């Protein structure tokens, strides 16, 4: 049977001066540092046998996919299944902002962290991204495919593939900005998962999706 690798790439740092949870909101583009990160991941994958590059419809993912596709003279196609997870607090400031846990108006959204009650169910995210990943695997069979998307869906798909519970501590996610989580298949069967951080030297001081700074 043929071997195929599907790389799930997280987008780079976003220009987010107001430090809000932007989620699926349109127009959020990469920062200057994010563009450098995207080039790093493009260089990292330049020598790989990439036959397909596909992205979330959101601008930050499309921009991250561009240098990867350019290195292989490929177009960037869009897949709605790769979009960011839905979140009730989209457009709000996290932590000490509008979405703070201490505000009684928000308590109803924190009732079930295992689902989670504040956003798109974990299982639904796994289902849609896994479906997109297997379609890409079939289309790029015998080669490699790149899907550019967002941290939480990537991390959930990895946990699912490794047989781990989907509820987790967000602080322990191994899915840094412009990281590459690679799923290796033999035929249609998963044979292993690898992880790389080609933009690791740029992460310190970057702003994450919730507006907080990374160390």
From TrEMBL:
InterPro entries, alphabetized: His_Pase_superF_clade-1, His_PPase_superfam, PGM_Phosphatase
UniProt superkingdom: Bacteria
Gene Ontology terms, MF aspect: phosphatase activity
Pfam family, one: His_Phos_1
SMART domains in the cross-refs: PGAM
GO cellular component: cytoplasm
Name of the protein this chain belongs to: Fructose-2,6-bisphosphatase
Protein source organism: Brachybacterium muris UCD-AY4
Species classification: Bacteria, Bacillati, Actinomycetota, Actinomycetes, Micrococcales
């Amino acid at each position: 049977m043929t071997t195929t690798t599907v790389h799930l790439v997280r987008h780079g740092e976003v220009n987010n001066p107001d430090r809000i949870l932007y989620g699926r909101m349109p127009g959020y583009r990469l920062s200057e540092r994010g563009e450098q990160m995207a080039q790093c991941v493009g260089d990292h994958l330049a020598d790989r046998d990439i036959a397909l590059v596909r992205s979330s419809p959101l601008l930050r993912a499309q921009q991250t996919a561009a240098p990867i596709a350019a290195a292989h003279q490929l177009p960037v196609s869009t897949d709605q299944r790769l979009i960011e997870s839905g979140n009730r607090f989209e457009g709000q400031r996290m932590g000490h902002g509008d979405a703070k846990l201490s505000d009684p108006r928000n308590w109803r959204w924190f009732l079930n962290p295992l689902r989670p009650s504040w956003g798109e169910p974990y299982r639904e995210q796994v289902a849609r991204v896994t479906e997109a990943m297997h379609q890409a695997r079939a289309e790029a069979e015998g080669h490699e495919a790149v899907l550019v998307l967002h941290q939480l869906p990537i991390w959930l798909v990895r946990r699912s593939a490794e047989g781990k519970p989907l509820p987790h501590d967000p602080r322990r996610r191994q899915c840094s900005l412009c990281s590459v989580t690679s799923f290796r298949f033999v035929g249609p069967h998963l044979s292993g998962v690898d992880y790389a951080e080609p933009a690791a030297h740029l992460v310190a001081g970057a702003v994450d999706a919730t507006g907080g700074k990374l160390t």
